Amino acid sequence: MHEAVNRLRGSIGHLNREGRERLQAVFAQVDQHFQALFSRMFGGGRAHLGLVGSDDPLEAGLEIFAQPPGKKLSTLSLLSGGEQALTALSLVFAAFKCQPAPICVLDEVDAPLDDANVERLCALTRDMAEESGTRFLVVTHHQLTMAHMNRLFGVTMQERGVSRVLSVDLSSATQFAETSIAPHLS
To answer: Where does the RecF/RecN/SMC N-terminal domain lie (predicted)?
Structure first.
């Protein structure tokens, strides 16, 4: 019995060591991407991730330290709503860069952002789609975000109680509009 307990403790110790090593490696990778993406999303500034509350990474908490351009270094909770959204998006995309997926769904992530930050978000999703081949499905009401998309899907209600799903390929629609308008301009 004593021997079995010792083997179990040894196995648990081995798993904990391996877990710590893997967590620290992934944490460093996510932090590196987060720092770069934060600076890109804010057009400057700096940020980093920190493990807090314990020296053991398996028991530590996560703290996000951010310094947008022209501000003091602070924690996420002290930033404005738009700054929190951009910082959170930087972290989500940093994790995503470590393990990209074929599809990424973003639901109203642009809602707290002003137009300049929506432009940055759209540029980032476009670049990430090109780098990784990921398809981004963005649920939005923001016209600027919609203008950057390749295809739009929407729901309309032409008569009360009857919904209809519409799909528009923006590149085809733009091409159609240009060829339809061009003869009338000459």
So the answer is: 77-163
